[in-house]
Amino acid sequence: MTTLAVRRAQPPLWLAVLAGVSVWLAAWLVHMPLAALLTHDVLGMGGTQLGETVEFFLGDAAKVLLLLTGVVTVVSFLWSFVSPAKVKEKLAGRNVVLGTAAAAGFGIITPFCSCSAVPLFIGFVEAGVPLGVTFAFLVSSPMVNEVALALFWGLFGPGIALAYMAAGLAVAIGAGLVIGRLGMERYVEDYVWTIRAGSAALAFRPTTEDRVRDAWRATVEIIHKVWPWVVGGIAVGAFIHGFVPTDLVVSIGGSGNPLAVPALVALGVPLYSSTAGTIPIVDALIGKGLPLGSALAS
Fold it and tell me: Residue 245 above 50 pLDDT?
């Protein structure tokens, strides 16, 4: 069979996309009832601490992985329309404050994988974008990315998601302005100034089908990299939800402890894996009565 015949035998792209969206929506509607059914009726663990742990794990694992799949696919598709060369031109042509704020905002819509942010960071420096501006992008990209916002929106609602975005942007902009004032360009390695990575504009214009297929390939690659961290974070959150006493959580991180936030920040540093992996832990801590600010600090 020829290559042309194989292509004609494949279903139309719109049909594959429609099928994928339908499967995603169906899974989203049934994942919580299915987790309860498996825990209570199939495994017979209803009404026990272990049952609460298993139900939390099954429900949150499905929810987080579904959110990751949907959001990363959509953002990867939209990202294919963004030209890094034009972004660099816009950032290089602004004053420091506006450029720093724009770079921090641009970091939100970058792909989830942090390895994509570093080459862009180098490209910004090489193109003459001030170092402080580029650092604002590098800080916001992994911290206030589209996946984190989607998970916060899905787990805690729009208010907390928007508050998280505002706080993250403030940190990124502040860091960029401080680093810009310190004049640290002299510490950048020489090779960064000499490489011309991504400076040439590509003449190739992908078709819609190319963009959709590339977005799906990027999603599969990203999910393959992060799913162990996601499952691990959900397992920790499930254990906290099922077995850690509420009084213990509140005594450590509650409003009555003046050192709660610094202690949780210090605890969160060695526990960090990825944003997608830590947000389920935050969900479990809030469910145990930990104040929102303390839980986010961890």
Answer: yes
Residue 160 identity: I
- pLDDT tens digits, 78-110: 777 766 666 666 666 667 788 888 888 877 776
pTM of the model: 0.63
Q: What is the pLDDT of residue 296?
A: 66
Write down the pLDDT at residue 26: 95
Are residues 123 and 85 in contact, defined by beta-carbon separation less than 8 angstroms?
no
Sign of CA dihedral 257, 258, 263, 268: positive
Which H, E and C letters describe 74-95, residue by residue?
A: HHHHHHCCCCHHHHHHHHHCCC
How far is 167 from 283, CA to CA, in rounded Å?
A: 18
